[in-house]
User: What shape does this take?
Amino acid sequence: MELNETQIQLVAKTVEKIEAEISKQMVGQKELIRQVLICILAGGNALLEGVPGLGKTRLVNTIGKVMGLKFSRIQFTPDLMPADVIGTNIIIKNDQEGGMFKFQPGPIFSNIVLADEINRATPKTQSAMLQAMQEKTVTVANTTYQLPKPFFVLATQNPIEMEGTYPLPEAQLDRFLFKLYVPFPTLEELADIVTMTTGNTQTELHEVTNSEELLKIMEISKEIPVAKPVLEYALKLILATHPETEYAHEITKKFIRYGSSPRGAQAIISTAKIRALLEGRYNVAFEDIRYTAYPALRHRIFLNFEGLSEGLTTDEIITELIKDLDKQNKI
Assistant: This one.
């Protein structure tokens, strides 16, 4: 597929329509909405973290309706079992054959799956999500089933509720393309939220795209070229998160225990291509790498005890690494 201006305009207009429709139900959060859409169009899963009541569930629900995709919601609780998520075989009785097993699909068989409060489920149930999130398939009793296309998991977690929660394993965190923080609204936004949710006005949402168009956009994005210096910039950023490599910054050696996996590099490049499209460009720029580095790496860098005791955040580490890279490359 050869990239042309018509295709770039198609992507930009489609995303613009989606954002305009979502804004009917969501007050503010424009940057968050844009980042969620970039993640979705790159074919990845997103983890949304924020205190209760900020509209995480409402956002995901709205995205499903606006995109014309099949949507399902799974409320994760400590007693949730893997079969409640992926489905199970049930016995179907008939007069001729007596009884036979038939697979009953679970709520994971959807285009957009909202994994609400994902960190409240036990590790056994969380592990049931791994195959679905990475391979877009589910295996039950030695039979593998394909999930619908497109398929995304948009998960939410509450950072302040510690009791009854289980920290997500590193392997599962790595399968989220982006980790996004949901900011608290400003005074004006809070006033609009209260007015919207306590009045009689009901806003009707319209489908502005469909699965075929989304899959087409995903194919178009793969054609966006990445120049060798830009690619090396992203790869050096990944290597700079590992204290044992020659590219390690002093802050890395001092405060980082484990750096990003190769999936971090894949996440940065695939989402940078989408951002380049949305900015109306034919190629990935350094600014696209800097933009996508934060949501792509903040959950893939693990601080050591000294970093945690200093109260550092992974975003602060990423900022320092980007500054150092820019200095080296004279950007």
Summary: The domain at 224-329 is CATH 1.10.8.80 (Helicase, Ruva Protein; domain 3). The chain has two domains: 5-78+108-214, 224-329. The chain has a mean pLDDT of 84.
